[in-house]
User: Which sequence fits this backbone?
């Protein structure tokens, strides 16, 4: 177990110092190049085959370290939570969901203070992390980071939803409304008199002036 931890710690330090800008595939390949001998050699060959076929869940150096620790060493509950804490990310979830999972994983990991804040920041989506880093009042506790991140994420999602709604309303044609007062227009848009149905009975005709009785004709 000590040998496994020493190997992982050494590889992690080297990647952070020398290979931080390298692609994930390059980092993983470099780590695997030092997995040699006996069962470890066969394990490496199987993993390389899975990676080539796209069947492996290893998508980062930290995930590879977690797999090495899980397959070659006894993992305590605290160590398991530390590995989860180092790989958890918000991705496509809401910040609410990310914060709740982060709290669950962080509990019992032994992380606190600034190291815990750094892991939380690492897993945040880049846009939110940059906004919070540019805040006028620096955030100093994990509670402040989590509360502000959730609020910012909610505001951004609400703003995007409103923009989509306004976009749909602007794209919806209002149709050809009739002039106020029920008027009618000709092909050139000139105002005409009120529309009349020529086939309808004109009940107003004959009103005013001389009137004729419908019974006697006078």
Assistant:
């Amino acid at each position: 177990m000590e040998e496994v931890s020493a190997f992982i710690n050494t590889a992690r330090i080297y990647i952070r110092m020398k290979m931080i800008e390298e692609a994930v595939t390059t980092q993983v390949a470099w780590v695997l190049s030092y997995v040699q001998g006996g069962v470890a050699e066969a394990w490496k060959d199987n993993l390389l085959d899975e990676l080539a076929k796209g069947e492996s869940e290893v998508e980062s150096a930290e995930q590879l370290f977690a797999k090495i620790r899980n397959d070659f060493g006894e993992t305590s509950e605290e160590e398991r939570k530390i590995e989860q804490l180092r790989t958890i990310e918000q991705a496509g979830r809401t910040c609410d969901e990310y914060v709740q999972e982060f709290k669950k994983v962080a509990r019992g990991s032994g992380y606190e203070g600034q190291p815990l804040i750094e892991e939380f920041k690492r897993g945040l989506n880049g846009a939110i992390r940059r906004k919070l880093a540019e805040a006028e009042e620096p955030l100093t506790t994990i509670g402040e980071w989590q509360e502000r991140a959730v609020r910012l994420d909610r505001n951004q999602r609400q703003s995007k939803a409103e923009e989509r709604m306004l976009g749909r309303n602007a794209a919806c044609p209002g149709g050809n409304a009739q002039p106020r007062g029920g008027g009618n227009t000709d092909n050139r848009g000139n105002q005409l008199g009120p529309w009349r149905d020529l086939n309808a009975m004109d009940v107003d005709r004959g009103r005013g002036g001389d009137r004729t009785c419908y019974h006697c004709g006078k």
About this structure: The chain is about 60% helix and 0% strand. The mean pLDDT is 81. Residues 78-165 form a domain with the Non-ribosomal Peptide Synthetase Peptidyl Carrier Protein; Chain A fold (CATH 1.10.1200). The two ends are 121 Å apart (CA to CA).
